[in-house]
Amino acid sequence: MYDVCIIGGGLGGLSLSIQMADLGWNVLLLEKKEYPFHRVCGEYVAAESWDFLRRIGIDDNALQLPKITDLLVSAPNGEYLESDLTSGGIGISRHLLDDSLYKIALQKGVTVLTKTTAQSILEIYQYWEITTQKETYIARSVVGAFGKRSNLDHRLNRSYIDNSKSRLNHFVAVKYHLKGDFDAHKIELHNFEGGYCGLSKVENDILCMCYMVSGKVFYREGNIENLEKNVLQKNPFLKKYLQYTRLWKKPLSIAQIDFSKKDIIEKNIPMIGDASGLIAPLCGNGMSMSIHASVIIAPLLHQYLNDELIWSEMNDEYARQWKHHFKTRLKAGRLLQQSFGKNFITNIILQLLKGSNKTTQKIIEATHGATF
């Protein structure tokens, strides 16, 4: 019998497991992969998260991580604007960050089962039964932290899957690690037909390059090589960066990325991180939102396990706080997502923003939050 079972070992799941262990609870975390591993995402963690990360043992200074303070955004034709980032962030690879959190979780006494996939979750009076491909586990509480798209989404019959029909809901993402000249204090976002690409430095002077493209454009081109040659390289910035030395034999990629609205509580299970809703990657803040969600729910779970709240009260309060912190950011992200990747609209938007630094700063602020 565990006190807490967390399904998914990304940033939200690992951060929550550490907090619950610190509060004295017996925690089980299930992760389908084996650490360390790379994930398809950008690797810029906004400043709002770093007080928390330092509190639980991530030392950015000892790791010599790059501090990111400046932003450059370009249109498909190469037109660009530059701006200060209001609060900035720090570059760190998911390979390093997830593995560091995993080791901290183990040190705290969390039971982490890797290469373990949850296949079903059954609520039985005052406890939960979680069945994997190996065993069945019992827990007093359960939290979903299983990422962008999981077999559990289908097992739980989540409504967003049937409702995801707009162009926002079907994207392909591709990621590289590169070596080449790049300002370590800068994050760059470069638009192209049907998508955009983010670049920023992480540890060891490595350049992370991750781009997202609509399924329509990707499947029209047929493969990654054609997409980069015929579409991305029309942007002069990306033409240059695609010539840099690639540190992997082949890129990481994922498909069917979905930005439709998700329920925060699904079949009575609270969701954190991407399982509760994705912010557009061009906002650069999905990782911070995942971590922050764990900080919101941890004290509520603690109250539930101490019989100070019933399960429904805990879920209601978590959903209320989640919406308070993230609803506006997700809305702003979806609006930006609709505009970027369209050649004419992106060109016009950048021309307008170049004349108004105040407006640019307001857009940045709308997708970021306060320190937690």
Can you offer a commentary on this structure?
With 372 residues, the protein is an alpha+beta fold. The protein has twelve helices and 18 strands. The chain has helices at residues 11-22, 50-55, 94-107, 151-155, 159-163, 215-221, 224-230, 236-241, 286-305, 311-339, 343-354, 357-366, and strands at residues 4-7, 27-30, 44-46, 67-74, 80-91, 111-113, 118-124, 127-132, 136-139, 142-144, 171-179, 186-192, 195-201, 207-214, 245-246, 252-257, 265-266, 269-270.
Enumerate how many helices there are, as a single number: 12
Structural class: alpha+beta
If you average the pLDDT, what whole number results? 90
- Helices and strands, in order, run as EHEEHEEHEEEEEHHEEEEHHHEEEEHHHH
- Label the overall shape: globular
Please bin the fraction of helical residues. Answer: 25-40%
Outline:
With 372 residues, the chain is α+β, with helices and mostly antiparallel strands. It is built from 12 helices and 18 strands.
Properties at a glance:
372 residues, alpha+beta, four-stranded parallel beta sheet, 12 helices
